[in-house]
């Protein structure tokens, strides 16, 4: 599976270097925000979008300087809105804990994304950090590509 992302550079937050947004929207994926009583949230989507989401989450988990932002707020079908009640649909942000992005910093980073000069990238271009575990042949076990030849 080849995934394309749009890499937005982040300037003012030191450990976070870029925010990745999928180039092709995950149209059949939506996020139900946490319920006030149980605190449970739900990510619902088609099989294809959930597989893409899994690959993108793996990318965010292995990249020390990247965050993954999935705009899913507009994807909720009208027949699902009644189940949410008073809760508003949410977007999805995946960040490693050691990046140090506080929830109060995210609105400023998101505003900066609109003004940034984004560039399209393929996952194998973004996936070049040396802390990723490789198999014995020097290939990434998820994307099955040689990282250095």
Précis, in short:
The chain is built from 4 helices and 7 strands; from the N terminus they run E-E-E-E-H-E-H-E-H-E-H.
Features:
4 helices, alpha+beta, two-stranded antiparallel ribbon, disordered C terminus, 149 residues, 25% helix, five-stranded mixed beta sheet
Structure commentary:
There is one protein chain. The chain has 149 residues and is of the alpha+beta class. The protein has one domain (4-126). The chain has 4 helices and 7 strands. It has helices spanning 47-62, 78-84, 106-115, 123-126; strands spanning 4-9, 18-22, 29-32, 42-45, 66-70, 92-95, 119-122. It has a 5-stranded mixed sheet with strand order 6-5-2-1-7. The radius of gyration is 16 Å and the shape is globular. The two termini are 21 Å apart.
Mean pLDDT: 78
Largest sheet strand order? 6-5-2-1-7
Distance between the termini: 21 Å
| Structural class designation | alpha+beta
Number of helices: 4
Relative strand content: 15-25%
Number of domains: 1
Helix proportion of residues, in percent? 10-25%
Rg over CA atoms, rounded to whole Å, is 16 Å
Order of helices and strands: EEEEHEHEHEH
Major sheet details: 5 strands, mixed
Q: Assign an overall shape.
A: globular
Please mark out the parts with pLDDT under 50 across 5 or more consecutive residues, or reply none.
128-136, 142-149
- The tally of strands reads 7
């Amino acid at each position: 599976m080849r995934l394309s992302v749009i890499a937005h550079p982040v300037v003012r937050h030191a450990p976070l270097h870029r925010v990745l947004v999928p180039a092709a929207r995950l149209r059949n994926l939506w996020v139900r925000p946490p319920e006030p009583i149980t605190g449970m949230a739900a990510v619902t989507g088609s099989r294809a979008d959930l597989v893409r989401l899994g690959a993108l989450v793996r990318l965010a988990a292995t990249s020390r300087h990247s965050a993954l932002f999935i705009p899913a707020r507009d994807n909720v079908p009208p027949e699902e809105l009644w189940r949410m009640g008073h809760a508003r649909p949410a977007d999805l942000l995946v960040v490693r804990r050691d990046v140090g992005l506080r929830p109060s910093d995210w609105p400023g980073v998101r505003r900066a994304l609109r003004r940034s000069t984004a560039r399209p990238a393929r996952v194998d271009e973004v996936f070049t950090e040396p802390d990723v575990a490789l198999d014995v042949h020097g290939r990434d076990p998820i994307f099955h590509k040689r990282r250095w030849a």
